[in-house]
Specification:
The protein is mainly beta and 161 residues long. 12% of the residues lie in helices and 49% in strands. The chain is elongated and about 85 Å long.
């Protein structure tokens, strides 16, 4: 009978321990890139996180928490270049779509999205060397690290260089 009493106590302990919440999960920041027909490069706070070329459409996701500063303004730059000197972006139909998402527990929040289009230049000499865009946002943490907030600093900017 004493053996069964021990088993009952053990079962009750296991049952109650399953209801105790575990440690709080930090928010996860993730970049999603769709690109095709171009050479693309993505930088987070001046650190290159993605650099590649693709003739066909590709899609990649990358977590960037380790590249973000704990507090303050964050800057994400995306650049689209020709895949080769002989092939203008108009011919390859180059494009880059970049979105910044934040995952909190089981919810995903879209913070910002940048779409770099291919401009239809009639003259190959008129085509810029690169087309760029950026996402600027701010992370504010309270003392205990509770209630992070993102505040967009500026609107999306698309530049031709």
């Amino acid at each position: 009978m004493r053996k069964f009493g021990f088993l009952y106590v053990l079962m009750i302990f296991l049952m109650f321990s399953s209801f105790v919440s575990g440690p709080e999960i930090n928010d996860v920041y993730e970049l999603k890139i769709e690109a095709g027909g171009c050479h693309y490069q993505v930088q987070v706070n001046d650190q290159t996180v993605l650099d590649g070329k693709s003739y066909q459409s590709i899609e990649k996701k990358i977590k960037i928490n380790d590249k973000l500063t704990e507090n303050g303004e964050q800057l994400i730059n995306v650049h689209m270049y020709r895949i080769s000197r002989e092939m203008p972006l108009k011919t390859t139909k180059g494009f880059v779509n970049l979105s910044l998402q934040k995952t909190v527990k089981d919810s995903t929040i879209l913070i910002k999205e940048v779409k770099l289009p291919t401009f239809a230049y009639d003259n190959d000499e008129d085509q810029p060397q690169s087309i760029s865009g950026s996402i600027e946002f701010k992370i504010e943490k309270k003392e205990a690290g509770i209630n992070e907030k993102e505040k967009p600093v500026k609107k999306d900017s698309i530049q031709s260089k």
